[in-house]
Amino acid sequence: MTRMLRIVAAAVLFLVLPLAAPAAALIPSAAETAAVTAAPEQQIASTAEAGSDERIAARITDIFNQLPSMSQVDVTVSEGVVSLTGFAPDAAAIERAETIANRVDGVVTVENELERDVSVDANLGALGSLSDKFDGFVAMLPLIAAAFAVALVIGLVGYLIAGLGAVWRRIAPNSFLADLIATAIRFVFVVGGLVIALDMIGAGALLGAVLGGAGVIGIALGFAMRDTIENYVASLMMSLRQPFRANDHVVIDDLEGRIIRLTSRATIMMTMDGNHLRIPNSSVFKAVILNYTRNPQRRFEFELGIDAEDDAGEARRLGVDVLRQQSFVLGNPPPFASVDRVGDSNIVIRFFGWIDQEKTDWLKARSEAIPAVKDALEASGFALPEPIYRLRFDAGAPLPIGSAEIVETTGEPEQPALPATFAPKRKKAPRPKAAAEGGAADVSPDNEVEQMVDAERSSGSTDQDLLDSNRPVE
């Protein structure tokens, strides 16, 4: 945030300083102020010398006669006071006449009554100046044509060099970076040709003004298109770092699927239910990526609860033995189990096993392992109790616990019947495990989504794929 504020402040100063420069020029410097303060005021003599007015008038008139712009100025002097009347071509000439008169020795003050001459004859000089400028432009046309030709040749050379796509693709790690290098070469040559052309015709100041304005506009556009630029930079970094391969099974934040391709704008995935998913590369670059394909070995886990009175150690050993007997469970790393917690009415045991994802589907393996361990525990007499709840009725006598039967009387003196109660679930008697039907269960991987991704990649999409199997994965 601090860096952004500094950039904004620099941009504001860049805009304000050119506007403040003319105003600053009107403010006298400290040295000028000191000089004016130090200069003593001219003293006016109490008496005028004989013939001084004529001498002053003659001197000023002689000076004005040497200046074409002052030819229509009339000068009269009385007691050292100079009166200027007549016409001058412009405001600058009027001010200049007063300045000259003030500099003549003996002048007390100047009454400037000059008016601007707005007649056509008096302004023929301005029209002549415009004509001279046009003549100068016409004279420069050959030079301008030569400068334009030089800029055009330099630009064409840049386009030819940038067009060597095979060279840049061989140098750059991927096609995206190769296109970026070609674009940069074209830009450098075009700007270089423009600079040389403007320097040839003496318009370097114009180029500076244009580049300065372009810099301010670039800063404004940078803030306005921050997300777009961030996404573009993320695409460049991901094309260099290669965070995944095509058809990798990944989870990006909470989005799961298989990678189809990486483009200059987005990462395209196919979800596990067969839908296309497009994620901006700026989000992918900052996201947490979980890749299931990089390591073929993957662990599954599940938990089962046994009665609190049962032997938890024996249940663990029995469950691990059952997992070892499953053909899809790897022996290295071996399966294992741990007591996770003591629940309200049971002891929770968590079982773990490893599979090879290239040969076994993770969901299928877990679905087969859970009932196998559960049936083995029940067959060995371990109870898997359900949650037990005790109901209490505040009105009347407390309900006895331990019997679920209603006491009835037959022929005996009538006795009060005991209300129904709720008792914990009793252990089930061991029962033989049902024989598996149809042989071993099918736990082979489901490749439907993987095949759809391969078909999508081979369809020849117009989106450029930045994934390169020849580069190392990050």
Describe the structure.
- Helix content is 46%, strand content 16%.
- The protein contains 13 helices and twelve strands.
- The strands form three sheets. The protein has a five-stranded antiparallel sheet. Strands 1, 2, 3 and 4 form a four-stranded mixed sheet that branches. A three-stranded antiparallel sheet has the order 10-12-11, with helices on one face.
- The protein is elongated, with a radius of gyration of 49 Å.
- Residues 1-5, 7-28, 30-39, 403-427 and 434-438 have low confidence and may be disordered.
Brief sketch in words of this structure:
The protein contains 13 helices and twelve strands. The chain has 474 residues and is of the alpha+beta class. The longest helix is centred in the N-terminal third of the chain and has 39 residues, at 124-162.
